[in-house]
């Protein structure tokens, strides 16, 4: 039995691509060791994330996210027990940088594909439905 938790937060205003890269590399290694999988999407300075693993470890990681100065207004959207993981092979952070600069074709294609994925992916649990719906809302909001 595993536990999953979906959350949202705001990124600090001056979070840059290097910060995101450091977050990704630090947490990927840590999460692999702790047996935590999941996904986090960053767009327009907003995070939406889902974590899955043993409940005590997921809650511990989430408490670190709450204390991380790069996250503001951290909110749990849903959580619950699950029989199997859905994000075991996923990259932990997807950043879609479409802020101040002109949107490139690759970024727009990635965003469109991720929006399509939110419609197509199997949503086995309430928490994963909340995650995917929140990702779609985040990406469609401009």
Describe this structure in words.
The protein is an alpha+beta fold. The protein is built from 4 helices and 5 strands, in the order E-H-E-E-H-E-E-H-H. The protein has a single domain (2-140), classed as Alpha-Beta Plaits (2-Layer Sandwich), CATH 3.30.70.100. The protein has a 5-stranded mixed sheet with strand order 4-1-3-2-5, with helices on both faces. Strand 2 and strand 3 form a beta hairpin. Helix 3 (105-120) packs antiparallel against helix 4 (126-140).
List keywords for this structure.
five-stranded mixed β-sheet; single chain; 29% strand; 142 residues; 44% helix; 5 strands; 4 helices; alpha+beta; Alpha-Beta Plaits
Number of strands: 5
Q: Which series of helices and strands comes N to C?
A: EHEEHEEHH
- Figure out the total of helices: 4
Low-pLDDT stretches are none
Strand content: 25-35%
User: Rounded to an integer, what's the Rg over CA atoms?
Assistant: 14 Å
What is the CATH architecture term? 2-Layer Sandwich
* Order of neighbouring strands in the sheet with most strands: 4-1-3-2-5
At the third CATH level, what is the topology name? Alpha-Beta Plaits
Helix content: 40-55%
Termini separation: 38 Å
Structural class call reads alpha+beta
Q: What's the overall average pLDDT, rounded?
A: 83
Give the overall silhouette: globular
Largest sheet: 5 strands, mixed
Total of domains: 1
CATH class: Alpha Beta
